[in-house]
Write a structure and sequence with these properties.
Shape: elongated
Number of domains: 2
Helix content: 55-70%
CATH architecture of the largest domain: Up-down Bundle
Strand order of the largest sheet: 6-5-4-7-8
Number of strands: 8
CATH topology of the largest domain: Amino acid/polyamine transporter I
Structural class: alpha/beta
Oligomer: single chain
CATH class of the largest domain: Mainly Alpha
Length: 678
């Protein structure tokens, strides 16, 4: 086992067999934190965005905050009810992509896929950037280094997910449950205080907010509607991550659809309760909250605040006030909130690779995205997501306020097309269904999806109107880019399939096989290649040597004649000391003289066992094979000669495979290893 293999085992763990895939499936108690962390984490920033938008018209507009919370909750309830129908109808894990493709066509499916891919990337970028901001606020050494901190976090999350979905899920479960306990516990305690008349004010309750220029006067109906629309669209960030469960159904234990639907219901109940509670409490406790770049809008008794004033987040202000006499409670809430913001990216690390594997299977993504790694995770998809997320983080300087404007556009595009696809699905099913009970169930399901489509369509229009110039256009542009790339990949695979299709002309045998054995020296690898070439019985056979030094050429020709090998030696003179080009030109010339012939090139190669020996051998052979692969009518065959170090490496690997490891007896693998040793 080489240095690279050892490092890989330390970081990722032992390889898992394909038969162990069932061991990686998730029970509901693990699936909930794995797939729900994104939607739940939005409680940490969605209320902030609602109050920031309303603050444009001053604190008086906060009277609408709880109504906006109810509106967002209704949309979330409708979307979750709709996706419960999806996980039952399409349990294969394609989610929105499969629904749109099957019912609306390939174009709609590709549109949904491009939207979801961008949304997953932005989920990682936004969550990790927000977590980096929390880390910088807690640790002064991280200030002005948020990008580096965010990149390191992405790398760590990538490593955890490469170890396998179940192992990473178990790791992330505890912080997610702690976050639920912290927020729900804080809100319950605060509501008890409110019921007893002892609910305190938050630290910003004594502040005033100056309305933005042009918003000072009483709002017109149009102005009020636009303000509420902006606040509503920002609050709808709470819906991101809901679709991840429908894309991750294959990761659930059996019965997959039922477990996914139950997890989705639990997610909706918890997320709605947390979000509405936080917004209602913030309003009741007198919160004043503005965009961090507009701190100057906050005043106290008409006087500006100090320049070093630190505006804490909504949850932090509520926690500080509720736990005024119990500081551990405050630090617990703030800590787990910062942690969950980082772990929210794990939802995307589970959804993106699964979607990528489905796209690869359908020919819309590189085939490499459909391959499982050593730990049965879609490793290439995980790494690809990490690279894209890091690119966004670096491009936007890990600033959440900039990245958040790109958010939720993609997910609502997929919401709409998915709901429309489900309506068509039920309509098509109703046309052939005759059982009255089943028809009633389908009618109800179609009504649920129709309500979901109505809500998500309204939200998408609102989001596009209010966020387009603020950065949503970048998301739309990125979606278009992914759409074009995926269609291009599909076109390539289609053209290759057509080109490779067998026909009658492929049965024709070549008229002549001209074999060339490349000679660098007259040693054992060359003699083995000559013997193998003779065994193939070509029509003609010759050795080929590229002469760059007259003295060495003379010695080789003399030795060749002395051995009397019965094979002619062709010497190609290379005045510019090139080795690859003369051979390629010679092979092409032979092929050109007889287009129906085949030129077989045999290349002797050393096989070494140590990584550093790879740097010392075979470089010319690799370059030559690379050139000959593009030469029509030329077949390349490598004739390996195993050096002693390769044998030692093979023996080491066999001993390593036969070694009994902790846990092998429990898993019943010692018998397999005994057979291997025998």
């Amino acid at each position: 086992m080489g240095v690279g293999d050892v490092s890989k085992r330390i970081l990722l763990g032992r390889k898992l067999r394909s038969a162990q895939l069932g061991e990686t499936l998730l029970p509901k108690r693990i699936a909930l934190p794995v797939f729900a962390s994104d939607a739940l984490s939005s409680v940490a920033y969605a209320p902030d965005e609602v109050f920031i938008m309303l603050a444009i018209a001053g604190a008086s507009a906060y009277v609408w905050s709880w109504k906006i919370a109810i509106a967002v909750a209704l949309v979330m309830a409708a979307v979750i009810a709709s996706y419960r129908q999806t996980v039952h109808a399409y349990p294969s894990g394609g989610g929105d992509y499969e629904v749109a493709t099957v019912n609306l066509g390939r174009t709609a499916g590709t549109t949904v896929a491009s939207a979801l891919l961008i949304d997953y990337v932005l989920t990682v970028a936004v969550s990790i950037s927000s977590g980096a901001q929390y880390a910088a606020a807690a640790i002064p050494a991280f200030l002005d280094h948020e990008v580096i901190v965010a990149v390191v976090m992405v790398v760590l999350l990538t490593a955890m997910n490469l170890r396998g979905i179940r192992e990473s899920g178990s790791f992330f479960a505890v912080p997610t449950y702690l976050f639920m306990f912290a927020i729900l516990g804080m809100c319950l305690y605060a509501f008890i205080q409110m019921a007893t008349g002892t609910l305190p004010d938050v630290e910003s309750a004594s502040l005033e907010i100056a309305a933005d220029e042009g918003w000072e006067q009483p709002l017109t109906t149009i102005g009020l509607l636009f303000l509420l629309a902006r606040a509503f669209s920002s609050g709808c960030a709470a819906l991101t991550g809901v679709e991840a469960i429908s894309n991750g159904v294959p990761a659930f234990q059996r019965p997959k659809s039922k477990n996914a639907a139950t997890t989705l219901l639990l997610l909706g109940m918890i997320a709605i309760t947390m979000m509405v509670s936080v917004i209602v409490l913030a309003r009741q406790m007198g919160l004043k909250y503005v965009d961090p770049h507009d701190i100057h809008k906050l005043t106290r008794n008409g006087e500006a605040l100090p320049e070093d004033y630190d505006q804490h987040t909504v949850i932090a202000q509520i926690a500080r006030a509720v736990f005024i006499d119990f500081s551990p409670g405050f630090y617990f809430v703030v800590t787990v909130t910062g942690v969950i913001l980082v772990l929210a990216a794990n939802t995307a690390f589970n959804g993106f690779p699964v979607l990528g594997s489905i796209l690869a299977k359908d020919g819309y993504a590189p085939r490499a995205l459909g391959s499982r790694g050593d730990r049965l995770a879609y490793s290439n998809g995980i790494v690809f997501l990490a690279v894209l997320a890091i690119a966004f983080i670096v491009a936007f300087g890990a600033e959440t306020t900039k990245l958040i404007q790109l958010y939720i556009v993609g997910v609502f595009v997929s919401f709409n097309l998915s709901q429309l696809g489900m309506i068509r699905h039920w309509t098509r099913a109703l046309a052939s269904e005759r059982d009255p009970a089943e028809r009633r169930r389908m009618f109800n399901a179609r009504a649920i999806n129709a309500i979901g489509l109505t809500f998500t369509a309204v939200v998408l229009v609102v989001v596009l109107i209010t966020k387009f110039l603020a950065g949503a256009w970048i998301t739309i542009l990125a979606m278009g880019f992914f759409f074009v790339v995926m269609r291009g990949i599909k076109g390539h695979y289609n053209s290759v399939e057509i080109e490779l299709a067998a026909d009658e002309t492929d049965k024709a045998l070549p008229t002549r096989v001209h074999a060339l054995v490349l000679v660098s020296k007259l040693h054992k690898p060359t003699l083995r290649a000559l013997a193998f070439a003779k065994a193939t019985r070509p029509n003609s056979l010759e050795g080929v040597y590229v002469s760059v030094d007259n003295a060495e050429t003379a010695r080789l020709m003399e030795e060749w004649d002395e051995r009397n090998l019965g094979v002619p030696l062709k010497v190609l003179h290379s005045p510019y000391r090139e080795v690859v080009k003369p051979i390629v030109e010679y092979a092409s010339a032979i092929r050109g003289a007889n287009p129906r012939s085949v030129v077989a090139v045999y290349i002797p190669e050393y096989v070494v066992g140590r990584w550093w020996e790879q740097l010392l051998h075979n470089q010319t052979a690799l370059r030559l094979k690379g050139r000959l692969l593009f030469t029509p009518g030329v077949m390349v065959t490598s004739v390996p000669y195993q050096l002693r170090s390769s044998q030692l490496a093979r023996e080491r690997e066999e001993r390593e495979e036969a070694r009994v490891r902790p846990g092998d007896l429990r898993r019943g693998r010692t018998e397999d290893k005994d057979r291997q040793v025998q």
